[in-house]
Amino acid sequence: MAKKTDKLILALPKGRILGEVLPLLKRAGIEPEPEFSDPNTRKLRFDTNDPGIEIIRVRAFDVATFVAFGAAHFGVAGSDVIMEFDYPELYAPLDLDIGKCRLSVAAPQSVVAVDNPARWSHVRVATKYPNLTHKHFARRGVQAECIKLNGAMELAPTLGLCRWIVDLVSTGGTLKANGLVEIETIMDISSRLVVNRAALKTRASTLTGWIDRIRDALEDGRDAA
Amino acid sequence: MSDETENRALLPAGLHDLLPPRAGQESAAITGILEVFAASGYEQVKPPLVEFESTLAGNGANGGGSLSGQMFRLMDPVSQRMMAVRADITLQVARIAGTRLAAAPRPLRLSYAGQILRVRGNQLRPERQFAQVGVELIGPDSVAADVEVIVLAAEGLNAAGIVEPTIDINSPALVAHVLAGIDLGEEAVQELRASLDRKDLGATEEVLRREGIAFSDSAKALCAMIETVGPAAEVVEELKSIDLPADARAEVIRLADVVDGVRAALPELSLTLDPVEYRGFEYQTGVSFTVFAEGVRGELARGGRYITEAGEYATGVSLYMDSIMRALPDAESGSRLYLPAETAVAVGQGLRANGWVTVAGLQDVADIEEEARRLGCSHYLVGEDPVATRDTDS
């Protein structure tokens, strides 16, 4: 059903990225109410200094879904999540230059030493990104059987669940600590500003106004650095 | 047996029962839209639900190709040929215009309403069956025709109860003209299209850089176009200021004329322009448009210029009733009047003639008001006068 709200809903991801997003938003003129940074709060929706904007805090994967369905008008999501879901209703107009990491294939050293990828027809992979993994292996003619895990991917090969994983890598420390080697990069990742397609059309001037302000804030940040 | 086979209420994914009052609301909305089309001289045609796959699939040039994976197919035991259930009605109307109505005077104005069936729904539109209502204007290749169809789309939506639609004008040809000026491989074009679809300036620049053409005029034009989206009048001005190849420039002038025409006809209409929108416009050749409503996911309607299989210029619009219904508020159940069993037939006829919806009692009941309430009637008849049913709670 059509739910009309005059407020724009901004979806932000919980966790690591949040700390990098908030200073940027502040430069663009959006500051959440103090309760937002209280780790014990049970609130999920927060007011901001701007009466026209409300913030919701959801899981990184869910930002894309909230925005694609129009439940939130815009948000911050990693390009990994955007590509994994590949929602047609999502625009990603700005690269925010934060949350940088890469999506990579990794395996235990012992496997890499003996296996010859050119001979594969099938591979079993543990990952949070079944679609991207499928596509990546399909491009080289290999069928990927994906085991969807939501975390602790590094455990899968060491306990014999599978031999390969596809996961986010930033420094490579976690991989190394679990005896895994990064084999190849599938894609480089950074956080993007995502905007709902219908919202960009029906509330064109307000939303493009905010995109411009965030773009300016990004450039200010670059100049300062 | 599993639970799924035992529960008779379960329908296949994407198929729904529409119940009162929504079913009535939908058919009233369709009637309202068709009346608006008819009032502007569009005559209704009714193509069949199923026809030969070869005529329904069309070809790459008229867009049949893109829907061919969406059609249910069945073998015709009579002709021994493959048939398909329509996944879109536009092509059928174009077929009628090119064959049975080939000799009818142009401009040919046709309207239609019917159910379509698709193999797959998607996350935003899970429906596999829904109603499509639309018009096709066949013959002219003019700004006036483009304007007429856009205005008609807005008026049709108004009639259905969509008060403030936003019409986003697009031009699939514009980006194609700009891309034609760049020498790129098939794969790079695909990649560029994907990043343009997402309005991802960073990714677009990256492709252009990698291909070593970041500093060409066309590349600059593309990057400038990504950021031009918003109110139509402003975007037209921005587009005019971008350095574009000649045929792209002609397209911009066409867009500007259409925007002027629509604004003159409907000054209050929320009109936006997005020059890089391409998704779903695989067969449109000129000015196209998509209709949105605030707070409603997905598209309410889309339309635009194309060339029929017979090679004629055409433009049209399809309204999607599933999205339109999502945008409409719940219907208020109207006044219903309970007629006790002994009411004379003529009394009921008189009341109905005066606009009442009557619900006849078929047998005598002890408490007429209670019975009226049980049947969801807002009024019941005492003598010859309707009396409002009281709420039990009060």
List descriptors:
heterodimer; A: 225 residues; alpha/beta; 36% helix; 30% strand; B: 394 residues; BirA Bifunctional Protein, domain 2; 3 domains
Word description of this protein:
The complex is a heterodimer of chains A (225) and B (394). Chain A has helices spanning 16-28, 60-68, 79-85, 109-114, 130-139, 155-158, 173-177, 197-202, 204-224; strands spanning 8-13, 45-47, 53-58, 74-78, 90-95, 101-108, 122-127, 143-148, 164-169, 180-189, 191-196. Chain A is an alpha/beta fold and 225 residues long. In chain A, strands 2-3-1-4-11-5 form a 6-stranded mixed sheet, with helices on both faces. A 5-stranded mixed sheet of chain A has the order 8-7-9-6-10. Chain A starts with 7 loop residues before the first strand and ends with a helix. Chain B is of the alpha+beta class and 394 residues long. Chain B has helices spanning 3-6, 22-39, 53-57, 64-67, 90-98, 143-160, 172-180, 186-197, 201-210, 217-226, 232-241, 246-265, 321-327, 345-353, 368-374, and strands spanning 43-44, 50-52, 73-75, 82-85, 108-117, 129-139, 165-170, 230-231, 270-274, 288-293, 301-307, 313-320, 336-339, 357-360, 379-382, 385-388. In chain B, helix 14 links the parallel strand 13 (336-339) and strand 14 (357-360). The longest helix of chain B has 20 residues, at 246-265. The two termini of chain B are 49 Å apart. Chains A and B meet through strand 5, helix 8 and helix 9 of A and helix 9, strand 8, strand 9 and strand 10 of B.
